[in-house]
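Q: What does the assembled structure look like for these inputs?
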Amino acid sequence: MCRIKWERLKTYILLVLMLTSLIQIGILWDYQNHGLPFNFLLGIFNSTGSVFMDSSETVREEFFVPYRITASNGNEYHWIIGRDNSYHRELWEEAKFYLKNALISGKAQQSLPADGWGELITAKAFIFEFKSNINHQLLKWFMGLPEAQAAEAQGLHKMIILPGEGLDEDEVAVYILDNSGIRKYVFPFREGGISYKEYQNIIARLEKGKEWESKEYAVIKDLGLSEVLAINPDVLCVVRGSKFREYDSIRFDVPDRLSGSDEVADAVLGDERDSYDSYIDSQSIVFKNLDSIFRVYNDGFLEYRYIPGTEGDDKGDISSAFANSATFISRVSKLLNTKADIYLSRVEEKPDYYQFTFDYRIGDYPIYLDYAEGKDGEPVTSAAVIQANSKRIIKVRWILKNFEFTGEKASYNVNMENIMNDIIGDIAMDSNKPFVVDMGVSYVVKSDADKSLEPVWYVDRNGDNKAVALHKKGE
Amino acid sequence: MIEVLYMLKRTVSVLLILIFTIAFSVTAFAYDTTTLNDIIRSSDVKPTKQFLVMITKPDKNENIFQKSYIICGVPYKSGIRVALAVYNEKLGIYEDLPTIDGESNWDAGNFFTKEVELNKGTNNIKIVAYKSSEASNPKVGENVQVNTFTIIVFTEDFKKKINDNDLTIPEIQENVDKALMNMRR
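A:
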């Protein structure tokens, strides 16, 4: 009897040992990022088990914010609703509600070609713009919708809430622009949300409030130029009131925290730091294991490579790929002590992976990077570029910089007439020159030599971009 | 006697030729002395095609709800100046319409946008574009482009009433009819 009990105990101990060795193998296997055969353990322990995986609701909230929200009174006046204004959050909450309804309800009331966008933005409306198109899978992930729940393959680039438009006062028209065109949906106003009357009141306050004068614009469509010049009809321009508006300069530097290898290791490697070897050379801190290498240079250039590459890998779904990327961005951002934030500016689908581009923005002004070459010898045109598939991040190039306003304000001539006279030679009146996607006041970092930057007028031509100096008052 | 009559006839003929010559010369002389100012002021000058400047705004007659109005154009060639005028019904002529910067005449450059303050009601505006190098010898349709537009400014009150749904359909119709009548005038 005693012997049977002893044998049973030995069996249990053996089983526990087998299980723990299995887990041990799985952990080691996963360190090497092969991902198989024990990924199921991640689910069981609800741990993401990778340097990059720590997806959360906060990450969605952080990155699913429009690049710009504008309001139009239907009479050629448009206002940028800054991110520091309470209307921004209120309007975006409303927009997300209608967007979710559009995705769930499925059938659009009407489909329109993309070139109808110009007419819509001149109506009395609220406009939500992302810097580039978000495809329907990623959009569903942002909205927290399961794949099966969304009825239509609706992506999102821009969106308009149009209260009124010949509808009943209890209905709102929502237009969504994506790569395939425009879809129109009509919904009853959100219960407890912004009513028809309140939308009208917001516009009335924008029209009358002195504080909104410096945020007031026209759009290219209002000037009849969208039919003449190769410029997006919704590009904002200053044509009324004073030619001069006040803007701050900015300064930037390399984050202090990059000099402490422990802090860098915590931010870059998270819980996985023990599985990496690290060393410091004259110009960088390096973290390395069998198949991954991180290098953080003294000048803020962060580089990561997954050594085995992606050949033969399935890129999987875009939402997991983005979750990996955004989580990494979010965690490493802790190294920064900056007044700028980082936003998703481009999403590209490549044969073996997805590429996510992120850029810096301070206040409501974009910061463009334009280094002739980074530490890897390649040009740098964005804050961070991440290549990822659903399992892992494959490559990262990121310029880590702190940005802040200097407090040295000056008045710059941002009048459309003066600016266009400087740049019209670069703007096509036919298809010979690149299409202007957007224009506006921005900051451009070209090198680390001058760490103080004045605003410029930036012409975004889908990569073939151009920065034009703004003239100061009195110059 | 016949000789006298013959002489008289010759004299009359010569005189008639002289009178006709002078009369035609006077017409030609009058045409030559038309100044740019006359073209801008006159309500008789007919609009031309847009061959010097493409006026992108206004591109047609418009009804608006605010006094501030933007005029925008892209010249086809360099060395063009643009003058802006508004019709004064009492005087029967066009008068200078200064922009908010106080200029009613400017170099078109490569591109221009000008803000003007219009009056409530009907504003018949005239945009005259001309080659600055040929300003002393202006010829409408050759080196002078003339375009006219009617911009009607509705009152804020009218707009508010529409927004607040305080106007009945017939009342809105009445206002629009008034605007259309003004445009046709």
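The first helix of chain A runs from residue 2 to 31.
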